[in-house]
Design goal:
Structural class: alpha/beta
Active site: 161
GO cellular component, one term: cytoplasm
Radius of gyration: 20 Å
Helix content: 25-40%
CATH class of the largest domain: Alpha Beta
Largest sheet: 7 strands, mixed
Oligomer: single chain
CATH superfamily of the largest domain: NAD(P)-binding Rossmann-like Domain
Strand order of the largest sheet: 8-9-7-10-13-12-11
Subcellular location: Cytoplasm
Bound molecules: NADPH dihydro-nicotinamide-adenine-dinucleotide phosphate, N-acetyl-L-glutamyl 5-phosphate
Pathway: Amino-acid biosynthesis; L-arginine biosynthesis; N(2)-acetyl-L-ornithine from L-glutamate: step 3/4
Pfam family, one: Semialdhyde_dh
């Protein structure tokens, strides 16, 4: 039994996809009380004009994203383009606001400022505790490692959605020393909502439907240093990953297929055991029974990651597939899971384990 701990929460960027999903999961959380909802170009317009599926607050008028409007809450969630969240977080801190700040954007995820500058081309905002409770650390169980870093924290850097999928797929093999972290390949099928509402307003349905399109090819994607950082945390000395995302005609979902060179002589049963042990007690990361493969459709609306692993003995490689809903386990659900830990609430409180199908 836990003590009730009602908290007020403001969402900056409530007109966007990530902000809208954060609001949806928070509306189902028994302890959350929705405070300010803010936007940028859409400030002054009703929430229902942008999030028509969120009926309970459809008439709420969006305020401008400013520290004045965001101050005075227990929790502030930043669902803003990278750069904007770093600036607002710094202003809130300067003002002395003592809210827990949850950044859904990239600004505070990377530890290495040089990696930030190389991939984002701007000054690094800083590093916050990383909001992936299941992240492995060598020699520590998942129950104690990243969760200990998140318990009671006042700042949470929520992982990139692709990063969550690839990290959860590969980290058991890295931590157990069964795969070569310098020979990794990941290819992802991504739904369009991952690109954000405002980023691709020019896209025509006639171009998107019926086509699969690669993007950020050739080692340029901003999630590469973040994946490498996670796999180093899981025990890799150095990481080399070829990472290729593709856009597929679906609204939500990520299917990440990652392969890695198997350490020669490793028994396939040992591989399965490593993945099984890693996720045996995880509430939201589920290794499927042998022979069943994850699909994005079975994660929609849920804070669930479905994982499978197999050994391709002829190729000498491990193949692991992870499916998530990019907006739930990949963003808002993962954020709320970490926020529950920060607040001392049960980690699973208010979070959907079951999805929507068909
Ligand atoms: N979509 C996804 O699956 C994921 C997104 N994220 C991250 O979440 C953040 C938001 O992404 P997403 O919701 O997809 O993007 P959207 O384009 O859907 O929404 C962006 C939001 O930010 C506001 N905004 C735009 N420009 C500015 C600015 N200069 N200053 C302040 N606010 C601004 C917009 O307001 P307005 O509508 O009024 O212009 C809108 O509310 C990003 O950092 C993204 O990388 C992280 C993981 C996954
Ligand atoms: C389909 C699509 O474009 N997806 C985005 C996911 C963005 C994301 O996870 O957000 P951050 O910018 O917060 O890292 C991408 O691959 O860049």
């Amino acid at each position: 039994m836990f003590m009730h701990m009602t908290f007020s929460v403001a969402i900056a960027g409530a007109s966007g996809y990530a902000g809208g999903e954060m609001l949806r999961v928070l509306l189902a959380h028994p302890e959350a009380r929705i405070g300010a909802l803010t936007a940028h170009s859409n400030a002054g317009t009703p929430l229902g004009a942008h999030q028509p599926h969120l009926r309970s607050l459809a008439g709420r008028v969006l305020a401008a994203t400013s520290t004045e409007n965001l101050a005075g809450h227990d929790v502030v969630v930043l669902a803003l383009p990278h750069g904007a969240s770093g600036a607002i977080a710094a202003e809130l801190a300067e003002r002395g606001d003592d809210a827990i700040v949850v950044d859904l954007g990239a600004d505070h995820r990377l530890v290495d400022p040089a990696a930030w500058e190389q991939f984002y081309g701007s000054e690094h905002a800083g590093t916050w505790p990383y909001g992936l409770p299941e992240l492995l650390h060598p020699g520590e169980s998942t129950a104690t490692a990243q969760r200990a870093a998140l318990a009671g924290t006042r700042r949470i850097a929520v992982p990139g959605c692709n990063v969550t999928a690839v990290t959860l797929g590969l980290q058991p093999g890295v931590a157990a020393g069964l795969i070569e972290p310098q020979d990794l390949v990941a290819v992802l099928a991504n739904g369009y909502s991952g690109a954000g509402r405002s980023l691709k307003t020019h896209l025509l349905a006639s171009e998107a439907l019926g086509a699969v399109q690669p993007y950020a090819v050739g080692g340029t994607h901003r999630h590469i240093p973040e994946i490498a950082q996670n796999l180093r945390s899981a025990g890799a000395e150095a990481v080399s990953i070829s990472f290729t995302p593709t856009l597929v005609p679906m609204a939500r979902g990520i299917l990440a297929t990652s392969t890695a060179r198997l350490v020669p002589g490793t028994d396939p049963a040992t591989v399965r055991e490593a993945w099984e042990q890693t996720y045996a007690d995880e509430p939201f990361v589920h290794l499927l029974p042998e022979g069943q493969w994850p699909t994005t459709a079975s994660t929609l609306g849920a804070n669930t990651a479905l994982v499978q692993v197999a050994v391709d003995e002829a190729a000498g490689r491990v193949v692991t597939v992870t499916a998530i809903d990019n907006l739930v386990k990949g963003t808002a659900g993962g954020a709320l899971q970490s926020l529950n830990l920060a607040l001392g609430l049960p980690e699973t409180l208010g979070l959907p384990l079951d999805g929507v199908a068909p």
